[in-house]
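User: Could you check the structure of this?
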Amino acid sequence: MTKEEAIYKILVESDLAQKVKNRIYPLVAPYGVNRFPYIVYSQMSRYAQGTKDDENRMLILAISAVSKTYKEAHDIAFKAQEILYSDHTTEIENTVGFSNFRFESESEAYDREHDSFMVKLEVSYEYNPVDLWQTVQSE
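Assistant: Sure, the predicted structure tokens are below.
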């Protein structure tokens, strides 16, 4: 399982999937999507910590909740954050090698063209690329 597949699995196997009717997309919502609410998740950045000998990497992930109402966008974003910090993610984290999920920031925007609100969370987590590669190879 890749880290992208793991993030998708965490989101789609949660209560959040029902809330957005399984409209969870990587990187960008498909062109012409006019059903709300939905979630888009993407990698913001990835970097190594410490020294050249440090195997762990840090990944910053953005999760954007898009809705027709401001409150619903915030509710969905809050639920996504709650899911990433739940016991539900522990098994997936252990399988893929994620650790130390942290909330980094939250921002919001309004899209006048689609009359919709977006709340974007940025969360970070550590992973070991060697462990991740071995997990992918064993599947």
